[in-house]
């Protein structure tokens, strides 16, 4: 089993000190930086735009993993790539012409990913396995940090893992929402490649320790 990667979500950071927060997780061993974009339509909350992404990209060498929880993803893909995003995921529930959108993300030089909500079945990915670099599985309903992982998602991830191994072994499995050391172990055992974690990382004083605990590298 290869080592799981950890992507801290900036949604949970102290926004009065964004630069320090980014540097703290980079120094703490984060593999990616997860950037949650919410539009107040697809999800009830509103967050960050390409301007903040561009600013963050100036102060870190971590790859920026942009999670678009928006209905108008087609308008935002280019501004985010110009703002330094190297990976962009869009929701199957939100995008009308998914094939075109994923193709566009790849054309302009980012890795396309597809995100699915907790109630969206694995078969929603049937036609796109060959087009994406990663699949992001929501383990909470999108819109807010600090929620608890929905237990039924574990079973779904098992099915998704088999499907992935069978159809597109190079596609990474990413899980997002409610991840903490207590449930990270089962996610690692299921073969998840990337854990997105907001509260579990930015809610901890010691970022290196928080990241190591999610990887199962430190006890206690
Ligand atoms: C929720 C976001 C998540 C969120 C995770 O809509 O997509 O990335 O920031 O935060 P925690 O780890 O606090 O659940
Ligand atoms: Zn996210």
In short:
The chain has 220 residues and is α/β, with parallel strands linked by helices. It has eight helices and eight strands, in the order βαβαβαβαββαβαβαα.
Spell out the CATH superfamily.
Aldolase class I
**Structural class of the secondary elements?**
alpha/beta
Rounded to the nearest angstrom, the radius of gyration is 16 Å
Outline the low-pLDDT stretches.
none
Distance between the termini: 22 Å
Strand content: 15-25%
Q: Main sheet, how many strands, which sense, barrel?
A: 8 strands, parallel
Overall tally of domains: 1
Number of helices: 8
Strands in their spatial order, largest beta sheet: 1-8-7-6-5-4-3-2
Order of helices and strands: EHEHEHEHEEHEHEHH
Any ligands, ions or cofactors bound here, and which? Answer: D-xylitol-5-phosphate, zinc ion
**Whole-number average pLDDT?**
97
Q: Any guess at the CATH architecture?
A: Alpha-Beta Barrel
Q: What share of residues is helical? A: 25-40%
């Amino acid at each position: 089993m290869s080592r799981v990667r950890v992507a801290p979500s900036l949604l949970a950071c102290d926004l009065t000190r964004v630069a320090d927060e980014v540097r703290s997780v980079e120094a703490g061993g984060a593999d990616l930086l997860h950037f949650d974009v919410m539009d107040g339509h697809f999800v009830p909350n509103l967050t960050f735009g390409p301007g903040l992404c561009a600013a963050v990209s100036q102060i870190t060498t971590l790859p920026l993993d942009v999670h678009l929880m928006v209905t108008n993803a087609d308008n935002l893909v280019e501004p985010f790539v110009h703002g330094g995003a190297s990976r962009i995921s869009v929701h199957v529930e939100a995008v009308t012409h998914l094939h075109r959108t994923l193709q566009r993300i790849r054309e302009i030089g980012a890795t396309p990913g597809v995100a699915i909500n907790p109630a969206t079945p694995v078969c929603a990915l049937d036609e796109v396995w060959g087009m994406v670099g990663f699949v992001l599985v929501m383990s909470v309903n999108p819109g807010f940090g600090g929620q608890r992982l929905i237990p039924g998602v574990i079973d779904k991830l098992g099915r998704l893992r088999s499907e992935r191994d069978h159809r597109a072994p190079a596609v990474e499995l990413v899980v997002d929402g409610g991840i903490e050391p207590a449930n990270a172990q089962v996610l690692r055992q299921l073969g998840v490649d990337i854990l997105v974690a907001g509260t579990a990382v930015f809610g901890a004083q010691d970022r290196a320790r928080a990241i190591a605990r999610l990887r199962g590298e430190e006890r206690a």
